[in-house]
Amino acid sequence: MQSTLAVVSLGAVRANICAVRKCTGKPVIAVVKDDAYGHGALQIAHAVQDMVCAFAVSTVDEGAQLVHGGVSRDVLVLTPPLSAEEARRGAALGLVLTLSSFPVLRILARAGRGVRVHIAVNTGMNRYGFSPFETAEACREAVRAHIAAEGIFSHLYEPSDVRARLAQEKAFAFACLQAKRLYPKLFCHLAATGGVAWGGETFDAVRIGLALYGYAPEDAPLRLRVRPAMKIYAPVAQSGKPFGGGVGYAAAAKRYAALHTLRVGYGDGFFRAGGLGAEGKLCMDACVREGELPFGKRVCILSDAEAYAREHGTTAYEVLVNAGRRAEKRYVR
After folding, report:
1. Beta strands of the chain (E only): which ranges?
2. CA-CA distance, 250 to 314, in Å (whole number)?
3. Which of 149, 156, 199, 276 has its CA 20 to 30 A from that of 166?
4. Any idea where the domains of the chain sit in the sequence?
């Protein structure tokens, strides 16, 4: 009863996948990294694995959770392995690893024959990946090392910038052409939620993270008909008439007839600066609000992560991951 409660609609997540598939006509890779953006990776994966062609996670540990939890679809680990031990563990689990550089290629070569990979291409984001002009040599070395490349991917850094997006798409198409000379059946994927919404080239599949959970760019030309899947509730821990001149960590701006305290604060992944209807700043584990509510009642404090993110100059990604991390989960259809 003390924790915040995240109510996650699995029906909304499935409907969001349907919306993306309807817009693109392409298979979906569901991104469930960082505990499915705070929604619970294993539960989300089981709820949608009949609708997607694969899942994507950040680390081998995240992939292991899905495999040990009985998820049967392929799991792509987006962060490249940093040691042969990590690569061998990923290969033993049947995970699809990321080949992103020549040092990583040498690590994967020590993991044993037939390790499965998707090749990462740096088309301008400068995070991970071979440059398009290194792709051919990378593939030649991968073949010599008996690495089983099954896919190739990149990531758009600003899909709303048409010129930048087209340049990245062109660079990626070039890299795909080079790689397919040695791996002709490569599965090519570039567009994530932003790329889909801004009309980017979708190649063989789309990787969706934020759209999976109900958020997409509002100003994009393609309106994805998705809806938020998670609402967060907090319990009323005290309620009644105030005393003295403060309200939370601030002097009271006016006289209040009644105040109530919710058991939620910045320790639960929200922002100390305020929001959630708080009077003044949030405490670490408490939020003081105007009005009187029954003791123990649960109050919805977050239903629109995008709106809350705008108040604090950040993104819905950060809000969802942080707010969902400490919350007790309840899943509804």
Report:
1. 5-9, 28-31, 54-57, 74-77, 97-99, 116-120, 148-153, 187-189, 206-208, 230-240, 259-262, 287-290, 298-302, 328-332
2. 24
3. 149
4. 10-213, 230-303
Whether the CB-CB separation of 243 and 277 falls below 8 Å is answered with no
**Nearest alpha-carbon partner for 208 in 224, 186, 221, 220:** 224
Tokens 């991917």 sit on residue:
153
The amino acid at 144: R
Superfamily of domain 10-213 in the CATH hierarchy: Alanine racemase (3.20.20.10)
Per the CB < 8 A criterion, the answer to whether 97 and 88 are in contact is: no
CA-closest candidate to residue 311, choices 251, 252, 283, 270: 270
Two tokens at 184? 């002709």
Q: What is the pLDDT of residue 238?
A: 97
Instruction: Give residue-wise pLDDT tens across range 32-65.
Output: 999 999 999 999 999 999 999 999 999 999 999 9
Mean pLDDT over the full length of the chain: 96
